[in-house]
Amino acid sequence: MRKVLNSLVLCHFIIIFADHKTLLLMMNRTLLIFYLLIMSLAVSAEKKTEAPTLYIYRYLLVDKKGTPFSVKAPEQFLSAKSIARRKRQGLSVDESDLPVSPVYLRQFCKAGAQIIGTSRWQNTVLVRSADTLLLQQLSQLPCVKSALPVWVSPENKSKDDAKEEGKVKWITDRPFHEWDSVKTEFYGGAKSQIQMLNGHMLHQAGFRGKGITIAVLDGGFQNYDLIPALQHARIAGTHNFVAPRNSHHSVSKEKDEATPRDLSFHAIDHGTKVFSAMAAYAPEVIVGTAPDAEYWLLRSEDNESEQLVEEDYWTIAAEFADSVGVDIINSSLGYYEFDEGLNSYRLHDLDGKTAFVSRAASMLVKKGIILCNSAGNSGMGHWKKIGVPADARDILTIGAVTEDKKIATFSSVGPSQDGRVKPDVVAQGAPATLISGKGSIVHDMGTSFSTPITCGLVACLWQSLPYKNASEIMELVRQSGDSYDAPNNIFGYGLPDFWKAFKMGEIK
After folding, report:
1. For 134, 139, 311, 405, which has the most beta carbons within 10 A of its beta carbon?
2. Which residues contact 465 (CB under 8 A, 6 or more apart)?
């Protein structure tokens, strides 16, 4: 197209200097019309190749009127396992558990909205569209209390999925190297990170997480299903909650599995590393902290931008985890600063009830679920503090220490802005021994990895004390910390001793 336009411009230039006026006028007019036609087609074609700017709005609904669901019949929207978890801990199903009113959802759909997710706990609806007028009109629906833009499609992010496919590194088999093995040492390279918390004592007593279900909320699980050392893991299912760039998509809670070889689900290996800290089983190379637990792998992190909608994805994923009967959630995710500085948090927001995601996280204990969340890696930056939902109430926020039990310089500090001790406890994360998405042993650093090391042992502890509720298990972990009598905003309650926690739990 460019060559054609260049030729036309050249011809136009030549004609301007022609001597014959009549020929000049005729040819110039004809060529001008043809030139304008070609330019119009070129501009039109260019517009068609440009992806339209998309927006996602969060709509808070006024109530749940018109719902056909009832707290007296929770089996209609919660699994038997989820209901049993509540009953075991003396917890009841309440109105927050009811799904968003389908009557209101129909109003959205009738108006032309593309719904990509809902939160029953916070009674919100996520809608995506390129039509800003429609998004504004939806805020005027009688069922809407307020509306907030939470995402705009990033610039230069309109590549086809086919182009992205080449970035995913698939493997079929990846044996460990000889130097990865630590002969005669069962835990291999993971020995230090497990024994530092006396987790090996729980394992030796027969508690390795059996009967406990853990949901891992993360940004990608590259090759989790192909790595030999993870084949032992019991995976209940996977799900991708991040709406792709393709506008013709909606998040479905009906489908428990990520689409086969979902590229975005496998795009990064952060989740693979986190998962391996708990589920890996390759004696004398690496063994995780809860190799016998059951797992749900849930993607809630959008790796292409940092915007408020990730709090919605996280919340929807947590609610899904609740509905399928998960006992513990591991979240190596946190937020405080968003793209372009829009909606970024300030220190006074870290009270466990301001951020959308922190409000959701604080509700988990009321559903009988323990949340283990990373403190964050901002200790050396300008922010320094924990992020959200690490500030949530009634959760375990995990910081990181080195192999010699000194605080990792990057580990975010507390306390929360309302004075609660944060982090709650710390574990080894500088470095941690993990498995990468390539299937090889790596040593990586971050509270992202001290968190699952701790989370897996929380599962083992709960297996050993099944009659305890979520709050009681978390308190035992805190009480077992080596700084419990003098907590601070760096170590929290310190390094937990899971064998001590078990012995204390037996007595109480």
Report:
1. 311
2. 472, 473, 476, 502, 505, 506
In this structure, which amino acid lies at residue 87?
Answer: K
* Cross-strand partners of 202: none
As given in the structure block, the two tokens for residue 32 are 């001008």
The closest alpha carbon to 242, from 296, 189, 312, 177, belongs to 312
Is 192 exposed, middle or buried, given 0-12, 13-18 or 19+ CB atoms closer than 10 A? Answer: middle
From the number of C-beta atoms within 10 Å of its C-beta (0-12, 13-18, 19+), residue 110 rates as exposed
Domain range summary for the chain, segments of one domain joined by +: 2-49, 55-152, 171-507
User: Do 42 and 5 touch, CB atoms closer than 8 A?
Assistant: yes
- What token pair was written down for 389? 């939902």
DSSP string, 474-498: HHHHHHTSTTTTS-BTTTBT-S--H
pLDDT in tens, 190-208: 999 999 999 999 999 999 9
Task: Give residue 425's pLDDT.
Answer: 98
Nearest-5° Cα angle at 452, 402 to 82: 160
Regions in the chain scoring below 70 on pLDDT = 1-50, 156-182, 245-261
Tokens standing for residue 167: 């970035």
Q: CA-to-CA distance for 5 and 163, rounded, in angstroms?
A: 29
In the numeric block, the tokens 């509270």 are attached to: 447
CA distance 173 to 106: 48
Does domain 171-507 bear CATH number 1.10.10.10?
no
